[in-house]
């Protein structure tokens, strides 16, 4: 697809556990040109950088032992811009990485889960998303093509969750979380999946418990938001469900979009 660039985002839920799946994805005939990764759960030195290079990719990594961690894997070498979300120097959680590939700016983000609601974890989630909204506005104002991708840990609407009633009090579906997500979207970003699939569920996550995958009781919490310059080139988008059906899978599966070059 020389006339297109495919960008995908995938929470692999542990790079050590899913390294084989990662390399298989990069060697697939429909492999993305840019892959935004979340929840590495490993320090930088544990990332399979050699295998990624052998598959024809470069990697930028922000690791953290046992938790969090994000990366940007790309065919063309990306240039790092920011490796921590601006606005709180005391926040040492590895949740944000920003780079540029030519004129394109790409972001890999792993927003806080926030459960249980009513605790400091939920307060941190909302504060993080507010801080992100401020930085997203800065990126939007550059008027460059920008892709904000990652695990946002937010189901934007009832359509994005299989059982809205059961999840009503979960941090992923709380009105406060949805308002924080829409505060970013309404700056002028385009939800790449929803723009082309207005009626589909588009789930990207299924719990390991309760036969959620077998019964397709999922959540859409992984999103790619496009700035106007990027959205002009949007030609396709989707969710790659194949990885969720593999042995020892991540509980997430990649969301992707194709942009004309």
Write the layout of secondary structure elements.
Blueprint (H helix, E strand, L loop, with lengths): L3 E8 L7 H9 L6 E5 L10 H6 L3 E5 L7 E5 L4 E4 L13 E6 L2 E7 L9 H21 L5 E6 L23 H11 L4 E2 H5 L25 E5 L1 H4 L2 E6 L15 E6 L1
Parallel strand pairs: 1-2, 7-8
Antiparallel strand pairs: 1-12, 2-4, 3-4, 5-6, 6-7, 8-10, 9-10, 11-12
Helix pairs in contact: 3-4
Question: Explain this structure to me?
Answer:
Helix 3 packs parallel to helix 4 (175-185). The strands form two sheets. Strands 3-4-2-1-12-11 form a six-stranded mixed beta sheet. Strands 5-6-7-8-10-9 form a six-stranded mixed beta sheet. The chain is globular, with a radius of gyration of 17 Å. The N and C termini lie close together (10 Å). It has a single domain, classed as Deoxyribonuclease I, Chain A (4-Layer Sandwich). The longest helix has 21 residues, at 120-140. The chain has helices at 19-27, 49-54, 120-140, 175-185, 192-196, 228-231, and strands spanning 4-11, 34-38, 58-62, 70-74, 79-82, 96-101, 104-110, 146-151, 190-191, 222-226, 234-239, 255-260. It is α+β, with helices and mostly antiparallel strands and 261 residues long. The mean pLDDT is 97. The chain contains six helices and twelve strands. 44% of the residues are buried.
């Amino acid at each position: 697809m020389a006339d297109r660039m495919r960008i995908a985002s995938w929470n692999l839920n542990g790079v050590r556990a899913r390294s084989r799946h990662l390399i298989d994805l990069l060697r697939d005939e429909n492999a993305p040109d840019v892959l935004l990764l979340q929840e590495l759960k490993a320090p930088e030195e544990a990332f399979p950088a050699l295998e990624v290079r052998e598959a024809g990719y470069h990697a930028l990594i922000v690791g953290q032992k046992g938790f969090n961690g994000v990366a940007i894997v790309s065919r063309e070498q990306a240039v790092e811009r920011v490796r921590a979300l601006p606005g709180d120097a005391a926040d040492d959680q590895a949740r944000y990485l920003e780079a540029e590939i030519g004129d394109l700016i790409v972001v890999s983000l792993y927003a806080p889960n926030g459960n249980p609601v009513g605790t400091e974890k939920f307060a941190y989630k909302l504060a993080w998303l507010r801080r992100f909204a401020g930085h997203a506005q800065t990126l939007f104002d550059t008027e460059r093509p920008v892709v904000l991708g990652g695990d946002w840990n937010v189901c934007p609407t009832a359509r994005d969750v299989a059982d809205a009633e059961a999840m009503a009090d979960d941090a992923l579906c709380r009105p406060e979380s949805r308002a924080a997500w829409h505060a970013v979207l309404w700056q002028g970003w385009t939800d790449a999946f929803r723009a082309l699939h207005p009626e589909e569920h588009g789930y990207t996550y299924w719990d390991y418990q309760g036969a959620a995958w077998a019964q397709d009781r999922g959540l859409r919490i992984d999103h790619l938001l496009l700035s106007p310059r990027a959205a002009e080139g949007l030609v396709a988008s989707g969710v790659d469900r194949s990885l969720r059906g593999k042995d020892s899978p991540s509980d997430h599966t990649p969301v992707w979009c194709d942009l004309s070059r």
